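Technical annex, item 7. During the second reporting period the consortium partners agreed on a shared format for inverse folding records so that results from different sites could be compared directly. Each record opens with the tokenized structure and is followed by the designed sequence. A conforming record, contributed by the partner at site C, is shown below for reference.
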């Protein structure tokens, strides 16, 4: 049976916070999966009916505890449980595969298939840009341009260009190219800052920055109790975006010194993996909050207040030991305001099989897989 994790769940590390899961069953929406101290999956769910606390439920018990889970959610539960990790990357990959099957609707399936193809394109583009940068940084004339990426001849040209770099390192060209491919595979969701179209995580950060400005403007103009919730979401998001920029800067610095990075590839690879993982964890859960905010745009003010209350409930606090912060001071102000809207959230937290709300979650899922 579920066990209560405390009156307020304040994790100190990302792994303790867990990765947000895009369930479509309202009560489970954006609950977080993590590995417990027995090395088994468990799900963290905010206490039901708006009460304080967080429940920890054994992953294998989920279908028995929540018998109203949608077919999509049962498939997602199986897909995540079959893996070995509880990370944003592993959860997202499982979610994309389930969405591509059509269980979250045809639009989500199309979006998921597009996402999987786009991820591969971002990886190829980043490999190409790393090869070009490596040539430029060691003084080798590559003659490469972005247009070369679209043809087999251009991709062969990129592989040929790395030969001059490999000679300077006294390394086989294929081995050097494989390392740059590995670099692009690990950091692909972030991509490179010079990409014509930003990769997924940088694109998400740009979209969140727009929402952050909108939340700040809302908090400045609105005089209702919802102001505190908007202010809280804005301040947490601003801090989150600053943390994300810090991680991106560290990754971009590595790409700015490719010769040095390749000379100590084992350490570099570990650094790239660490920073890429931190970037994914930093923005984990915000994609759905962005979808909530966009879904409420143009609606009646009361509906936007309800969206803010749900956003406030789901805001991912930055774990204390990952990035130093003083965000706790904003929470007590916002909690009193959110309590006034607790009734509006009962549809999300009652456990009832709400078809309209499930359809709304599926609609938002279409935007979070794009």
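Designed sequence (site C submission):
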């Amino acid at each position: 049976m579920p066990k209560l994790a405390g009156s307020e769940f304040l994790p100190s590390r990302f792994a303790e916070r867990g990765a947000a899961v895009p369930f479509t069953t309202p009560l489970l929406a954006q609950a977080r999966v993590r590995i417990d101290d027995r090395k088994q999956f468990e799900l963290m769910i905010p206490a039901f009916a708006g009460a304080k606390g967080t429940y920890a439920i054994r992953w294998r018990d989920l279908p028995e505890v929540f018998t109203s889970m949608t077919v999509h959610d049962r498939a997602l539960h199986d897909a995540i449980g079959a893996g070995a990790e509880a990370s944003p990357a592993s959860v997202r990959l499982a979610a994309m595969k389930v969405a591509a099957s059509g269980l979250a609707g045809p639009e989500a399936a199309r979006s998921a298939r597009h996402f999987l193809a786009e991820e591969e394109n971002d990886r190829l583009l980043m490999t190409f840009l790393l090869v070009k940068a490596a040539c430029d940084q060691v003084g080798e004339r590559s003659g490469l341009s972005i247009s070369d990426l679209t043809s087999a001849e251009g991709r062969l040209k990129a592989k040929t260009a790395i030969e001059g770099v490999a000679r300077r390192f006294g390394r086989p060209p294929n081995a050097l190219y494989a390392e740059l491919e590995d670099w692009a595979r690990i950091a692909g969701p972030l991509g490179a800052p010079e990409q014509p179209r930003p990769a997924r995580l940088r694109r998400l950060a740009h979209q969140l920055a727009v929402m952050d400005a909108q939340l700040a403007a809302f908090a400045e103009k609105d005089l209702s109790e919802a102001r505190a919730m908007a202010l809280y979401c804005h301040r947490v998001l601003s801090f989150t975006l600053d943390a994300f920029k810090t991680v991106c800067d560290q990754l971009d610095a590595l790409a700015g010194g490719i010769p040095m990075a390749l000379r100590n590839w084992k350490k570099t690879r570990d650094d790239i993996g660490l920073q890429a993982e931190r970037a994914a964890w930093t923005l984990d859960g915000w994609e759905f909050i962005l979808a909530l905010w966009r879904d409420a745009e143009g609606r009646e003010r009361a509906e936007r207040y309800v969206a803010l209350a749900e956003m406030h409930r789901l805001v991912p606090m930055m774990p204390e030991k990952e990035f130093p912060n003083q965000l706790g001071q904003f929470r007590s102000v916002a909690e009193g305001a959110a309590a006034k809207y607790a009734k509006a959230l009962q549809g999300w937290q009652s456990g009832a099989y709400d078809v309209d709300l499930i359809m709304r979650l599926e609609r938002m899922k279409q935007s979070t897989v794009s």
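The radius of gyration is 22 Å. The longest strand covers residues 41-46. All partners now use this format for quarterly exchanges.
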